[in-house]
Amino acid sequence: MPRSDTIALAANRKMRSDSVYRMPAEWEPHAATWLAWPHNRTDWPGKFEPIPYVYVEIVRHLVRNERVNVIVPDEAAARAVRKLLVQANAGLQNVTFHCWPTNRGWLRDCGPIFVHSSEPGKERSKSGELVAHNWRFNAWAKYRDWQLDNQLPRRIAAHLGCPLVSPEWPPLKTMSARNAKPETRKVVLEGGSIDVNGCGTMLTTRACLLSKVQARNPGRSQRDLERLFASYHGVQQVIWLGRGIEGDDTHGHVDDIARFVHPATVLAAVETNRRDANYKPLAENLRTLKSSTDQRGSRLDVVELPMPAPMIYRGRRVPASYANFYIANGIVLVPVFNDPNDRLALNTLAEVFPDRKIAPIYCGDLIWGLGAIHCITQQQPL
């Protein structure tokens, strides 16, 4: 029988305050992928029915390459998901179910961000103890139902028996002791807002982390965030891009616009139609990337990735982007939209990942939830 949450949570060990962290790149070996089964119909109003089948297709590909941990609300949901996976000929031997309550379950943003830790004085290596970072999740500073999702890092770390670290801010000089509530000290961060090369360089956007719109950490500066990333991710160089794409209700997550695919190579989403709302911000981001350097001071190899044509549903543009792919062991899952540029995007990814299978996943329905494959997955590195 699995341990109770109370016992399991007590098993989480505290890390040394001077531990050295490194966030592995997504293409480094995984122990597993985590995802939460969809159940909140308000995320896909009027279009929920096909969504579980998109998840089935994602799991079907992943289980051939690594273990998949699936979070479901209860045992009845677990039985229903097992039935769907069996019908799709997905191997259940590589699937583990966890009955935990969730609000939405966009695991990229509400799940833990895993890092490797090592003792101080030792160089950051590609191995080390697995640590779960428990960033505060507040539903992109936009929605009110996030409290259950905010518990997932603790639950996942408890299940794994790995240390759980909750990053906190030092007090603001302008913050009085009377106003310094504990919840204001915990750092808000979503996994979709950052991307790393595993060697010390990070991509993120000013629109998401520095804007006063949907402000995650009011009062904190770019320098504050850079110090934080150095401490908790082992980041020496932060490349700040500008705006995200149209329809993105996260206000600028980087995983829709630019992604590392190699320590020195970045895929950058580009729009060729000058009249499209995405043309200018993506062109500005492309210029920034081409003039940026990595942690060693070397220029990046920037590969352009096309955008699909605008997708409109119920009068709203959705954030369809090929950059929202997910890199797993031996495979890359790529969102496609029945668009002529699907082929170009798949060919581009095949060129930068010659040793991995490229698996297209139709996301024309999934994207109505304003997220795609990368948004619903979270890797657990070895």
- What is the number of independent domains? 1
Largest sheet: 4 strands, mixed
Low-confidence stretches: 1-17
Structural class by SSE content? alpha/beta
State the separation between the terminal residues, measured CA to CA.
25 Å
Rg of Cα set: 20 Å
Q: In DSSP terms, counting alpha (H) and pi (I) runs of 4 or more, how many helices? A: 12
CATH class: Alpha Beta
Strand content: 15-25%
How many E-type strands? Answer: 19
Instruction: Please tell me what the overall shape is.
Output: globular
CATH topology: L-arginine/glycine Amidinotransferase, Chain A
The appropriate CATH architecture is: 5-stranded Propeller
SSE inventory with pairings:
Blueprint: H1 5-10, E1 20-22, E2 30-36, H2 51-62, E3 67-72, H3 75-87, E4 95-99, H4 107-110, E5 113-118, E6 129-133, H5 139-142, H6 152-160, E7 164-165, H7 182-185, E8 195-196, E9 201-205, H8 206-209, H9 222-233, E10 237-241, E11 258-262, E12 265-270, H10 279-290, E13 301-306, E14 312-313, E15 316-317, E16 326-328, E17 331-336, H11 341-352, E18 357-362, H12 373-376, E19 378-381
Parallel strand pairs: 2-3, 3-4, 6-7, 9-10, 12-13, 17-18
Antiparallel strand pairs: 1-5, 2-19, 5-6, 8-9, 11-12, 14-15, 16-17
What does this structure look like?
- This protein is α/β, with parallel strands linked by helices.
- It has a single domain, classed as 5-stranded Propeller (L-arginine/glycine Amidinotransferase, Chain A), CATH 3.75.10.
- The chain has helices at residues 5-10, 51-62, 75-87, 107-110, 139-142, 152-160, 182-185, 206-209, 222-233, 279-290, 341-352, 373-376, and strands spanning 20-22, 30-36, 67-72, 95-99, 113-118, 129-133, 164-165, 195-196, 201-205, 237-241, 258-262, 265-270, 301-306, 312-313, 316-317, 326-328, 331-336, 357-362, 378-381.
- The longest helix has 13 residues, at 75-87.
